Fold these 3 entries.
Entry 1:
Amino acid sequence: MKLLARTLLPLLRPLNGSPLRWLGHGAARSQALSTTLWTQIKQMPQRPKPPPGSDIEESYLKGSGPGGQKINKTNSAVQLKHIPTGIVIKSQATRSRSQNRNIARKLLAEKLDDLENGDQSRNAIVAEAKRRKAASAAKKSKRKYRKLEEAGRHNGQPGDNVTVAVAPETGTSQVQVPTNIEKTSPTDGKSSDL
């Protein structure tokens, strides 16, 4: 590696400074400089390919809903029907017919993938990964707050477990202190149980 660097770097410097500048910013640069082994990263399955055009019946409809007059007067909504299965997809995500066509084809490909592969489809795998991530976050959160609660119990900080109730009709407040907390009297400094 050092030999390669010694031979290539002097040739590359006169062209435009550092070779890292060629990589630019963002994902390409971070991947090029990363030490992560790509074989260890679990990759998601590829997105399913849309079915051939001969299997699709395409129609354009007038849209409805938000978007104003443009949506209501133009045929920008796209409806695709997959002839072999009878699945119908309608897309009105944007005001552009061409973008809606692409979105509808992607949605149809995902639906067909779900139908054919079931639990092994890309959508199912992505949903499972999101579910696992959310469960892990919830578990970490519970662990964190349980640990904080236990630390608060052991410390016995003043003000813990004290409830203040305000009577709405009189505006007076009542403080309820649990019986297991010691209270120090302000006059003599001695503690007494309540």
Entry 2:
Amino acid sequence: MAPFTRAPKAAHLSWSREKLAKANKKDDDDAMRIDPTCPDSHFDPHPPYSSSPFLISTARIFFAASPMGSASEHDVREHLLDVDGVGEGAPAATAAGPKIQVRGLTRRSEASGEEILRGVDLNVPRGVVVGVIGPSGSGKSTLLRALNRLWEPAPGAVLLDGVDICGIDVLALRRKVGMLFQLPAMFDGTVADNVRYGPQLRGKKLTDAEVQSLLSLADLDPALYSKPASELSVGQAQRVALARTLANDPEVLLLDEPTSALDPISTQNIEEAIVRLKKTRGLTTVMVSHSVKQIQRIADLVCLVVAGEIVEVLPPSELSEAKHPMARRFLELS
């Protein structure tokens, strides 16, 4: 099996900056897939293009709101964020306060009715890396996917810059809040073709220098610019996917176990790119990971999720002080 595949064509928890400065897989896919009743879902339980779980999982990278559905040019355009701004009538964003606020976020399984998220409250400060960890099935990925409406949260449950994300055009939101998944998928063509794809849909062609700059930000050698995407290693492909996301100039980056399929060197490259983006661009990052050590290396805050609830938010240096019994057990066994 190829390491990656081409995508088909066509507790209110708020932390002060002072404390932050001082501190310095898909666990719930089986329980919660994208809501088939959501207008953006295009849910198809019998995908026509493949019965392979690997290809299905990979297709979800780009067609996130149609996780098991057939690919189309509309899907590609939608999920590479073919927009220029916020939706008509959306209120102006505010610069003060947390970058993201989550208030009373709840989600139930369509199949069983079981609660996946139970009244989650969370503040994500600006320009920090927040690591989300916890046992499998605890709701980490479901929480992450609410932040750019890969499923529809209740009105008022998720705010971006103080603005309810339900009032922002969904494509504009996904341009502001980019997402990188576990498995990279490359379009036909060169590395440069892949990086240019999103902006090109909006009528903007990135210059060679702009593409090479984005590759550097993703910790890639700009000399890979003209290399066929099909010849990349999985680690290189994941970083090209990161560069492609950055080409849309997001304000927030959501990462769902982006290094779980990578070797240690490729993992280090991705981690260094995340930290560099925080320092150079002030990018706010929320990252789901099963690796406690990884989160300790790169996160400013750690969010512990257990059974659909956030039970602890603390600096990585204080993880040993976690008080929740299940959180402590998870950390001890990690």
Entry 3:
Amino acid sequence: MDALPPELRRRIVAKRDRYERAVRRMVAEGMRRRAFMKGDSALVTRAILGALNWTAKWYRPGGKLPPADVADAFATYLVRGLKQ
């Protein structure tokens, strides 16, 4: 991102930060309602987003699993890992 023009970089970072805050609020709310186990909502959020964002690095179309199966597995693993 350092190669981007400053204004474009600023806009992208602002959108990224808004998205992360929204996910963090959802995680914190799940913890507050005891739907998710207690923890550091910022750390949990970054773990979730990191897992999802890294998929673009390793996923290969035409590989062992179709995209829908990968999405279902991630949803299951990530949500199951949060539950009380």
